[in-house]
Amino acid sequence: YVKEANEWFPKIAKQHHFSYDTTSNWANMNVAFLSKYQVVLFLDTRPEKEEQRTAFETYMKNGGAWMGFHFAAFALTPSAFPQNWDWYHNEFLGSGQYSGNTWRPTSAILRVDQKHPATKNLTQTFKSQPNEWYKWEKDLRKNPNIQVLLSIDSTSFPLGTGPKAHEIWHKGDYPVVWSNKKYKMIYLNMGHNDMDYERKHGKEIKALSQTFDNEMQHKMILDALLWLGNSKKQR
């Protein structure tokens, strides 16, 4: 997925006249480096060192902008990524810990709140690319600072194929894209393609789908990015 993203974003950047840089070096998560950028993207994990987290929080509180995908919001205690960053998971994202997922990655019909710059050009519902969908510890609907932009439509159920029963969702409210009104930010749960885990198509595990192969998702990501890059912080 990250490789796919790092191929798609430069193409979009060229078309829409902005620059796109990529790094896997978390040491760059410092005040001086962040000050060069209008928007920061987390394509995968989060920073783990205290000074990096402080630099990111400072950047966001001073008007910086952020777009995060899929695993960037993951936290689970106990795991290799425990919930040990209260501001990020509870205040900024508002979701708290991860509390489950569908399996295997499948498409869903997504319901759209069109009252946001990132979603105003989308249809009321659309079919997503295959994804592993997450659910969360906290009810985002009850947070007055959170605007849920996309959620799983009830026509998607049952969602997932298992084999474990809890990996198939039959009902419920599952936000998958949202923004926090106190910050210039948007989180998208997309970012986990369907993969050939059984190696039916060769010795290597290959992607069976692509996140960046969907017109509606393209519109949303691009409009969100342009909004983040051009808008003033909402306070």
Briefly characterize the structure.
The protein is an alpha+beta fold and 235 residues long. It has helices at 2-16, 31-34, 50-61, 86-92, 215-230; strands spanning 39-42, 65-69, 98-101, 109-112, 125-127, 134-136, 146-152, 175-180, 184-188.
What key attributes describe this structure?
single chain, 235 residues, alpha+beta, Rossmann fold, seven-stranded mixed beta sheet, 5 helices, 9 strands
- What profile does the largest beta sheet have? 7 strands, mixed
Number of separate strands:
9
String of helices and strands: HHEHEHEEEEEEEH
Gyration radius (Cα, Å) is: 17 Å
The first-to-last residue Cα distance is 33 Å
The CATH superfamily turns out to be Class I glutamine amidotransferase (GATase) domain
The proportion of strand residues reads 15-25%
The quaternary state of the protein chains shown equals single chain
Any idea how many domains? 1
Q: Which structural class should the secondary elements be placed in? A: alpha+beta
Helix fraction by DSSP (H/I, runs of at least 4): 10-25%
The number of distinct helices, counting runs of at least 4 residues, comes to: 5
How are the secondary structure elements laid out?
Elements: H1 2-16, H2 31-34, E1 39-42, H3 50-61, E2 65-69, H4 86-92, E3 98-101, E4 109-112, E5 125-127, E6 134-136, E7 146-152, E8 175-180, E9 184-188, H5 215-230
Parallel strand pairs: 1-2, 2-9
Antiparallel strand pairs: 3-6, 4-5, 4-7, 7-8, 8-9
Structure description:
By secondary structure, this protein is an alpha+beta fold. The chain is about 25% helix and about 15% strand. It contains 5 helices and 9 strands, in the order H-H-E-H-E-H-E-E-E-E-E-E-E-H. The strands form 2 sheets. The protein has a 7-stranded mixed sheet, covered by helices on one side. A two-stranded antiparallel sheet has the order 3-6. The longest helix has 16 residues, at about 215-230. The model has no long low-confidence stretch (mean pLDDT about 95).
